[in-house]
Input
Amino acid sequence: QVQLVESGGGSVKTGESLRLSCVVSGFTKEPRSIGWFRQALGGKREGIASMTGSDGSTYYVDSVKGRFTISRDKAKNTVYLQMNNLKPEDTAVYYCTTGAHPVGAYGRWWPEHWQHTAWGQGTQVTVSS
Output
């Protein structure tokens, strides 16, 4: 059974940075994709970044493109989300997830069609102005 454990959340001010970590364990086959979703208070859970297991291709939603970077350390079974230039609208609980989602050319992807296989417990990120 795949288990995901996030860490690295916290409270920062506008323009500052945080790095989230997600340790993945219990998998017998590398997940097709692993990525990050977030859910603001009263909002829907939205996918923001993903990495394909096979070749490391990355996908981002427009609201975080250029500010957030997803990466991985295979030796540590850990996926990271480097978040720079944080804004108050980035305040949310951030979740790590595995599974698969459709992708297209030129970095297109459809996180709303992600077929999830596991979720982490979430880590809170709060950005104040």
